[in-house]
Amino acid sequence: MWTLNTSPKVNVHVAQTGDCYDCHTNESLLKGMLRLGRKGIPVGCVNGGCGVCKVRIVEGAVRALGPVSRAHVSCDEEAQGYTLACRVAPTATVRLEVSARLSKPFSHPGNSSTTSNTKET
After folding, report:
1. N or C of the chain: less Cβ packing under 10 Å?
2. InterPro entries in the record, alphabetically (predicted)?
3. Cα separation of 54 and 39, whole Å?
């Protein structure tokens, strides 16, 4: 069943490629990122335990949707802006860097595009 998400949206920028996407303030950065339609974006456990969606928040603000495993994001990394895209939602425009396994779908020259997806979910 489809429901219209009426929460505000903010823009999210992927620093490495210039990709942009809209993300509702009540959904994870990963869920919004998946709407880009890139092949190979890894989706693991989607609850902070596997670490495949690790990102660094370069600018902007996010809020926690749940806990993040310290096995994947240490306290020191968190202080440097690292988090898991599946466990945070944006509260303002965000610029992020993808890291680790998440970087592969964003590193192929043929995959780069600047997109703003406004499809409601």
Report:
1. N
2. 2Fe-2S_ferredoxin-like_sf, 2Fe-2S_ferredoxin-type, 2Fe2S_fd_BS, Beta-grasp_dom_sf
3. 17
